[in-house]
Amino acid sequence: MWGMKNRLGKLFKKDGHCFFLPIDHGYFQGPTQCLEKPGETIKPLLPYCDALFVTRGVLRACIDPTNTLPIILRVSGGTSMVGKDLANESLTTSIQEILRLNAAAVGLSIFVGSDYERETLLNLAKLVDECESYGIPVMAVTAVGKEMEKREARYLSLCCRIAAELGARVVKTYWCEKDFDKVVNGCPVPVVIAGGPKCETEQEVFKFVYDGMKKGAVGINLGRNVWQSPHPVAMARALQAIIHESANLPQAVEIFNEFKNK
Fold first, then answer.
1. Full DSSP string of the chain
2. 30 lies in which domain range?
3. Catalytic residue at 84?
């Protein structure tokens, strides 16, 4: 379908790679640090990213419709940090709203292994049914919530493959130090790397992104490790170089330091 190919072509550059910038954290965290005013936070970062991952509320209130990146619309939610279980999500946005906002893609979380595994997987299946009718790609986010020990290749491979089997066109998942190539190789659709909790140093971020790209990921979907950095523009530029210019770790650090001092 032309529309599907056109939307995917906006998200992935000619090299097949992507740098998605998520600013959807407020849908369960509220006014996240450094994201209190999302429009101001992202303004200097837009030249270095390929798409924004955002909720419809922030999109309408904070993002300039005449001068922005392609939009991946966050369409799942219904829980919060103070609620009983973050995994108990439902679809929050209709297909009419997705079309009205001219989204290039939509994204939702799945919680494999949680008490709400079935519900979130059926959310994905339903969303794929609706969006495929209109040529809109679906990105599945393999969420693990607070269960950090699940960030291992065996679990992530399971999540990613199930998401692809249910029709996701793209899968966002966490990097793992061991056997990440098995996660990517077991998933028949493109895999993008999630950022997760903020890292202690810039080099930590560059290291896992570089390794993930070497092992087959097509790009990243990083938020906190960019806009919570003391030098967000330098972070964005260095990550762009790893994703689109095949920069290695020393080159990424050099670019970071160059932009940090501007």
1. -HHHHHHHHHHS-TTS-EEEEE--THHHHSS-TT-SSHHHHHGGGGGG-SEEEE-HHHHHHHS-TTS---EEEE-EE---TTSS-TT--EE-S-HHHHHHTT-SEEEEEE-TTSTTHHHHHHHHHHHHHHHHTTT--EEEEE--TT-GGG-SHHHHHHHHHHHHHTT-SEEEEE--SSSHHHHHHT-SS-EEEE--SPPSSHHHHHHHHHHHHHTT--EEE--HHHHTSSSHHHHHHHHHHHHHH---HHHHHHHHHHHHT-
2. 2-195
3. no
